[in-house]
């Protein structure tokens, strides 16, 4: 039977050994102090950075909201004008605003085409940044109000982030078209290989 350390045994441990162990422990503690300080500082800096990024992101989101709200307001104002003001009072330039911008508008892309593009062509990834997305957004390269058609060549699967950029014109039509073309080429070369 193994008994736990008993008092008589503890008293047999030489005092010098205890003192040496104690001193060694103390020295190790002091050596590790600056290292731990450094690590703590690094952790704090990372936290600060994260907070800053979050703040910037929030500001960005807020700006976008305001922008889209103002755009909507502007469009609504123009719609109202075009409907309420008689055409003889209204400059010719604006007379066909409604017709030009709304009658040509194509319907939203059909759900099955969206799914096909997302699962088959894009492989559940954003076709611009190639990140994996589970909330895909289908973007019309030529916008719907300009008569952009619901064809595979005019539609691109984007993540919400890239979609926002595309809608604001940061990602130009030509860039998106080029990217689609290149990906099509890539796919064809892959399928040609045995
Ligand atoms: Zn993306």
Describe how the helices and strands are arranged.
Blueprint: H1 7-10, H2 15-84, H3 92-95, H4 97-103, H5 111-121, E1 137-140, E2 155-158, H6 160-168, H7 173-192
Antiparallel strand pairs: 1-2
Structural notes for this entry:
The chain has helices spanning 7-10, 15-84, 92-95, 97-103, 111-121, 160-168, 173-192; strands spanning 137-140, 155-158. It is mainly alpha-helical and 194 residues long. Helices cover 64% and strands 4% of the residues. The model has no long low-confidence stretch (mean pLDDT 84). The chain is elongated. Among the domains are: 59-103; 107-189, DNA Binding (I), subunit A, CATH 1.10.30. It has a two-stranded antiparallel sheet. The structure holds zinc ion (ZN). The site of zinc ion has 8 residues, from helix 6. Zinc ion (ZN) is lined by residues 126, 128-129, 131, 158-159, 161-162.
